[in-house]
């Protein structure tokens, strides 16, 4: 890592203590935990045992705060981009359902003439949009999970095929692309996508529900 290579020099600790005339003293102690999940409890215990006036207790996340903040910002921007992509897909659903309503005007007129209520006609189109949203979420989740599980073999195959490294190791300091598959995020995104799919069909469904039987049957 160039950041460490440019700032640190590794020498035997006894020699450094002798050069700086420190005796047996040290300026920092590194502690490696078996599980990083225990870091908050360990930091709290050390800060309670050693006064903050003389000692500073930090985790790796505290020391690399700027880098991690940049990663969080990048993840937030990526989520916003994905949200706008889904929103654009919602407008596509809106346009498609307006076309479906226009094509099925005579069918809606027949249903209204046979006694179908406005709520029933509206429910047909909203149910159709819900089914489409569920199918899209199932297929999208399946492909997304498979892609996440196999992202590193895919990246290596694309690198060999194109000759361009999509994930330069010397820039990101990782041997492979790190992935985190959060089931709650997945469920939340699916619910949001289904909500957008149903919401985009509300206006066309209301238009179909308000059609008068006579006017709808005259449509050719």
Structural overview:
With 220 residues, the chain is an all-alpha fold. 70% of the residues lie in helices and 0% in strands. It contains twelve helices and no strands. The longest helix has 39 residues, at 65-103.
The assembly state of the depicted protein chains is single chain
Computed Rg: 30 Å
**In sequence order, what are the helices and strands, one letter per element?**
HHHHHHHHHHHH
Tell me the number of strands.
0
Give a concise summary.
The protein has 220 residues and is mainly alpha-helical.
Question: Which descriptors apply to this entry?
Answer:
70% helix, 12 helices, 220 residues, mainly alpha
Write the layout of secondary structure elements.
Elements: H1 2-5, H2 13-19, H3 39-49, H4 60-63, H5 65-103, H6 105-113, H7 118-149, H8 151-162, H9 169-172, H10 183-200, H11 202-209, H12 213-217
């Amino acid at each position: 890592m160039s950041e460490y290579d440019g700032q640190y020099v590794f020498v035997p600790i006894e020699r450094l203590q002798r050069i700086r005339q420190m005796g047996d003293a040290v300026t920092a102690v590194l502690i490696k935990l078996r599980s990083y999940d225990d870091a908050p409890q360990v930091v709290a215990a050390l800060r309670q045992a050693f006064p903050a006036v003389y000692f500073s207790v930090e985790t790796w996340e505290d020391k690399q705060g700027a880098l991690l903040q940049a990663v969080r910002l990048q993840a937030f921007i990526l989520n916003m981009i994905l949200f706008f992509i889904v929103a654009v897909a919602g407008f596509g659903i809106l346009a498609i359902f307006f076309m479906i309503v226009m094509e099925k005007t005579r069918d809606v007129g027949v249903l209204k003439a046979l006694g179908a209520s406005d709520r029933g006609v509206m429910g047909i189109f909203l149910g159709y949009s819900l089914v489409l949203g569920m199918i899209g979420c199932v297929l999208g989740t399946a492909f997304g999970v498979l892609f996440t599980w196999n992202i590193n073999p895919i990246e290596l195959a694309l690198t060999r095929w194109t000759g361009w490294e999509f994930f330069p190791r010397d820039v990101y300091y990782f041997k492979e692309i790190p992935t985190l598959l959060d089931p709650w995020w997945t469920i939340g995104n699916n619910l949001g996508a289904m909500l957008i799919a149903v919401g985009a069909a509300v206006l066309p469904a209301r238009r179909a529900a308000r059609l008068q039987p006579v006017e709808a049957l005259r449509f050719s």
